Structures are given as C-alpha cells and as structure tokens.
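From the shared-data thread, chain only:
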Amino acid sequence: MLSVFFVLAGASLDLLTLQTIGVLGSCYIGFRCLGKIVGGYFGGKIGKCAPKINRWLGLAMLPHAGAALGMALVAANYFPQYGEVLLSVVICATIIFEVLGPLFTKLALERADKPQQDEPQD
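Structure, as tokens:
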C-alpha cells in the first residue's frame, strides 16, 4: 500500500517544473536542514541530553518520509494554483533527503557514540 502511495506521488512530479523552482527548492531544503539541526540542538538542551547528543541530534533527523508527501498532496488539493510547484519541491526534496538522509543519520550516530576528549571512558 505504501508503495502505491509513493508511485502515485512520483507520477504527479513534473520534471519541467523542477527547472523553475531552483531557488524555492534550495530554500526549502536549506531551511528544513537548519530547522532540524537548530531544533534538535535546543530540544536536546531542554531535555538535558549530553552535549555530544545535542550536537548531532538534528543531523540524525534529516531523512524525509511519506508524511511530507501526504501533507503536500493534501495542500495541493486545497491550493490547486500552487499544487504543481508544491508537489515538485516536496517530491524533489524527499528524493534528496531519502538518498542523503540515512548517510547523515549514520554519521550522526557514529559521532554521538564516540567519547569526547574530556569524557571519562568506562
């Protein structure tokens, strides 16, 4: 069932639209990364996590999932005048984040697990 959802979302992608949304798509990706990293850092601070966890938490949350596609499809139905651009940006970002996101998550998990110089080892 989930495969059908992604196939239908991908079928609505207009590749010609991607040429016109470069700045918008870049802003979406950049601000999403910034929001995840800053939000993860301050969320970790509020939750009193170890500093090394705070530093890498946002990077570990970068993968994009089907929820964003679902919300984009709903928003495209409510705002049909923006639907094509909205879906193109979100689908393109989802592809980028699903390819690169797991690599960043792996990096963050590896770095958060390494002991710091001033941290006592068990």
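The mean pLDDT is 80.
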